[in-house]
Amino acid sequence: MLRSETLFGKRETPTPSSPTPSSPFSSPSSTSNLGSGSTSAIPKSSVPSAPVSSSSASNISSTNEIGSKLIVGPNIKLKGVEITDCDTLVVEGRVEATMNSRVIHIAEKGAFKGSAEIDLAEIYGEFDGDLIVREKLVIYSTGKVSGKIRYGKVVIEEGGQLTGEVQVGTSHSPKATPTTAV
After folding, report:
1. Residue ranges of region Disordered (predicted)?
2. Which end of the chain is less enclosed by CB atoms within 10 A, N or C?
């Protein structure tokens, strides 16, 4: 028979130097005991009560975003959906969708087909469809972007490809410049 200690690790017992309250309600300023499997107890006074301001969040890199994050892993195909209320989408598999978000990160083996309106796009894999990037489009050496593309700023690493109807600026102006692979 299998023992739970071998599957889930050995449970920690309180050390003699740390006092254990006789009742979990003995003192309002005491730390909460979240159970024997918890890794730490956090005093209520150390938990921030206000959300992180947008100015401090803008200094964080896109891979460490605070907020909602959807990761479509390798060998996963997500098809025929509208992705909403997602701050960051990480595509390691295949996605066919419509989305309006803050950040999209397409991994080298990942592919996105559909339409997306976002602030920042980091493309290592493939994007095909309508793409509006309000701030910055970054296409890395393994990245391929095709379709109807509008962007605020663009960075294309050597080897990266951008093809289709490409416009500078995110407004819906009729000026379009067809391009070839870079």
Report:
1. 1-61
2. N
